[in-house]
Amino acid sequence: MTASFNPPQRILMGPGPSDVSPRVLAAMARPTIGHLDPVFVSMMDELKGLLQYAFQTKNELTMPVSGPGSAGMETCFVNLVEPGDKVIVCQNGVFGGRMKENVERCGATPIMVMDDWGAAVDANKVEDALKANPGVKAVAFVHAETSTGAQSDAQAISALAHRYGALSLVDTVTSLGGSPLKVDEWGIDAIYSGSQKCLSCTPGLSPVSFSAQALEIIKNRKTKVQSWFMDLNLVMGYWGTGAKRAYHHTAPINALYGLHESLVILQEEGLENAWARHRQNHMALKAGIEAMGLSFVVKEQDRLPQLNSIYVPEGVDDAAVRRLLLEDYGLEIGAGLGAMAGKIWRIGLMGHASNMRNVLVCLGALEDVLSRLGASINKGVAVAAARKVYS
């Protein structure tokens, strides 16, 4: 007879999911009610307001998609992009490549702007592409590239898109709640994120927001949205305003309790304080990593505080280090993806997991495991270097 599943306690310091706050887990254990219950509808309205705060927007169409960040990505593309459209796609890692795939599946033409993995998107290249391709529908790019830890200038790229009459479509899966993001001030038209990174909720929900201009394009499409489930013209009947809601799908009720609680926690801390906390913990981790003699992939000015990509030292088995960290310390860090597989580690400092204890545990554990595997590092210095930052 199969027993109940009881997972071990882990410290999640990879590229996501991050540690989930006990308050969020407790919220998810509350009684399930109907997805059209007036009390649940009232909670949905609160959730929209909390997301507007997190995104720093007044966009009326701001809501969580019932699905992970990838579903939020598809929701943005299938609603805004039609067959025959031209879309500039900036790729500087794995997730720009997924944007390209979405554009192609919408029957549109992707115009690629390529940058090296670990580099930010080059705004000059974006402008060159806009000049060379009149009539572009949108400029799609990743604000926080999870595969490398590089952060691009969302404000500058969005301004360029508008200057040439295009929408800006932005992936903020890893940036929402962890580093400055201002949808209205930066002029972002369509944006998607994930619940499991800096918001520290469980995976499975994707906050999205659309500007009034994007909403007009969605309402006035020439063709049907290719996905029934993600068609916002239908979904808006459920996530719209007012007490009367039209049934579209059964929302993941308890997961939405969790997202609501995670956003309440963010509001209690204050966005600017959350951004500052992620920055300080990054600086402490950075001090310890560099004291050991290890180096970062991304240039300092383009580096995400919540996702730290570190080169694996020469002669060290990447997978062996991660296995020992998990077995001996219950600590998960991430491997490299694509071109960076086996060459880097990705250390997350996201949401509830972004704290001094985790930074110090991670540095101590990494130093111990690397020493045991014979890596050429400076020993006994990492934790002290991080502590200096905190003091």
Salient structural properties:
391 residues; alpha/beta; Aspartate Aminotransferase, domain 2; Aspartate Aminotransferase, domain 1; 3-stranded antiparallel beta sheet; Alanine-glyoxylate transaminase / serine-glyoxylate transaminase / serine-pyruvate transaminase; EC 2.6.1.44; PyrdxlP-dep_Trfase; pyruvate
Descriptive account of the structure:
- By secondary structure, this protein is an alpha/beta fold.
- The protein has 2 domains: 21-268, Aspartate Aminotransferase, domain 2 (3-Layer(aba) Sandwich); 271-390, Aspartate Aminotransferase, domain 1 (Alpha-Beta Complex), CATH 3.90.1150.
- The chain is 42% helix and 14% strand.
- The chain has 14 helices and 14 strands.
- It has helices at residues 22-28, 38-55, 69-80, 94-105, 123-132, 154-163, 183-186, 212-219, 232-239, 253-269, 271-292, 318-329, 356-372, 382-390; strands at residues 11-12, 61-65, 86-91, 109-114, 138-142, 144-145, 150-151, 167-171, 190-192, 206-210, 307-311, 331-332, 334-335, 344-348.
- Strands 2-10-9-8-5-3-4 form a 7-stranded mixed sheet, with helices on both faces. A 3-stranded antiparallel sheet has the order 11-14-13, with helices on one face.
- Helix 4 (94-105) links the parallel strand 3 (86-91) and strand 4 (109-114).
- Helix 11 packs antiparallel against helix 14 (382-390).
- The longest helix has 22 residues, at 271-292.
- It is globular.
- The protein starts with 10 loop residues before the first strand and ends with a helix.
- Pfam families: Aminotran_5 (PF00266).
- Belongs to the class-V pyridoxal-phosphate-dependent aminotransferase family.
